Each structure stands twice: as C-alpha cells, then as structure tokens.
Amino acid sequence: MRIRTLLTWLLLFLGATWVIKNNIVQIPDNVQQTFRNGVSRVTTNLNSILDSNWNFNQNKTSTKKDVSDDATPVESIVKNKNLSNKYYYSYQAGTPDAVQNVFKRAIATYNATGIVKIVPGAEQGWLNHLELGTYRKNVPLNQSRTIELGIGGPKIMEQTGVVSRIANHASAKLNIYYNKAVSQAVATHEVGHALGLDHSQAEDSVMYPLDREQTALSPADLAGLKSIYGETK
C-alpha cells in the first residue's frame, strides 16, 4: 500500500514537471522549485522502500510459528521481529584459515536446515549480515571453572514510520587464546547466537552453554530457528 501511494505521487510530480518543462502552463519559478524538491524527496523515499521491501519479501515464503515449550530459547532482541531468513557473511581482516574453515562448516549446518540461507557477501545497508572473526582474551576461571571460547549475538537495526525496515548486523567470534575454541562445535554455537538463539539447558542442543562438541542441531534448535524465521516451504 505504501509503495502504491508513493508511486501515485511520483507520477503526479513527474507529470507536473513535464508540464512545466515544456512550458504548457506558465508557473512561477518558486512553484517550479517546489515541484522539483518534491520529486527528489519522493524518489529518495521510493528507493528506500524498494530496498527494504526486497529484504522483507524474503519472508514471504515463510510462515512464522509460536515458540513451542521444547524449543531452544531465543534472544529477547529478536522476538516478534520480522527478520529476513537470508544472511550475508564476511570475515574480519586477518581471520585465520582454520577459523574460516570451522565457520564454513557451521554455516553449512544451518543452511542444510532450509530455515535460513547464509551466503558470502559484504555488509550493506538493510540486509542481514554476519561478521565472523576472532579475538584473543585470557579469561580467568570463574566459580563454575569454565572459560570463554567465543562470543556471538544479534545486533538489530530497525526503522519505523512511513518506511519500516529491519536488519540484523550480527557477529560471531572465536577466542583463539584457547586452541579448543577453534572447533566446529564452538563456531556453530556462536553462529546460533548471532542468528538469535539463546542458551539451552538441553545437553543435545548446540546452544548448551558448556562445550560438548555438539555440531548437529537438535529438534529443539530447529524449532527455535523456526520461531524466528519461519519454516520455508
């Protein structure tokens, strides 16, 4: 509806501009300038809507479902958000090949579900993006005697109003201070956070907070993803 309305206004502005340009009707200079400014504003808004609508249309083949009791929890920041299920990903400069390889295997695991589609590509505008990489941090053992092998999570950008759009510019990184961090299991866990999954207390979940070398998504993990992105038909 918003696109149709803006197209109507754009056609009216273009028609008026054509009349002015061809001197069919004599109109004062200040009125002509108003028309030109209006055309420029409408064109800018139309481009923005077309960009966000392309992103929004990625969800048209999906059906959102309520979160079932046994689904892996999701991050509060992504709940009830109409996120596209398509993501682009890129690596921060200097990411070692070994780290890139485990991330690629993790991404293949998520792509195999058919719920999300993650492909190589740079961060751009209102398109979902994952930044993958590393950091180095010596984390003292806490009371539970655990160490931090990685970090990951969503970063939601949202615009509402005449033009409404949303994107997730997320990140997932491995703590290469610890050799154990460079594994498919840790990469899968952190990419899960980036996509919006939260920790689960189910030991067969890739989102279990302790590393159990789990690389396969559990039925509950799949249900959690579907609650965010829907189930692609």
TrEMBL record:
BP terms from Gene Ontology: proteolysis
Keywords from the UniProt entry: Hydrolase, Metal-binding, Metalloprotease, Protease, Zinc
GO terms of molecular function: metalloendopeptidase activity; zinc ion binding
Domain of life: Bacteria
Record's keyword annotation contains Transport: no
Keyword Metal-binding: yes
Gene Ontology cellular-component annotations: extracellular matrix
Domain Peptidase metallopeptidase: 76-231
Transmembrane residue ranges: none
Name of protein: Predicted Zn-dependent protease
Organism for this UniProt entry: Pediococcus pentosaceus (strain ATCC 25745 / CCUG 21536 / LMG 10740 / 183-1w)
